[in-house]
Recover the amino acids of this structure.
């Protein structure tokens, strides 16, 4: 495995992500921000943050597989949520959990969560981009 995830002493430990990823692989893979589109370009889960998060993570998983990797190879995630507020955290975590169950993994690499005013399509509530390192 090219990525080792760590919660070093002196930094808060969270269940949602690890604070540090150490990469030892040889290929960098940059996944464009994935939105809640299915393979046909139809928005999944209009108005449903959990459903859209799930689809975004599944799309990241598809992109990783195409590059010969999986969520185990992800060094960093960035999650953009429209009109972010702390009360949206449960829907965000629900969507991640549902995607993790389908992917058979727990995606916990270091992550940055950013609230944004809008995304490219008004129906999109979330976008997820990833950087992976693959052996």
């Amino acid at each position: 495995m090219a990525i080792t995830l760590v919660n070093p002493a002196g930094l808060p430990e969270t269940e949602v992500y690890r604070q540090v990823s150490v990469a030892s692989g040889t290929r960098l893979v940059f996944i464009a921000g994935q939105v809640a589109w299915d393979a046909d370009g139809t928005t999944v889960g209009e108005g449903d943050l959990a459903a859209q998060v799930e689809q975004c993570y599944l799309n990241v998983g598809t992109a990783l597989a195409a590059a010969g990797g999986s969520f185990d190879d992800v060094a960093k995630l960035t999650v953009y949520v429209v009109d972010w507020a702390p009360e949206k955290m449960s829907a965000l975590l629900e969507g991640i959990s549902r995607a993790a169950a389908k992917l058979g993994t727990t995606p916990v690499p270091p992550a940055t969560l950013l609230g944004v005013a809008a995304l490219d399509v008004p129906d999109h509530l979330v976008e997820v981009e990833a950087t992976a390192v693959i052996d």
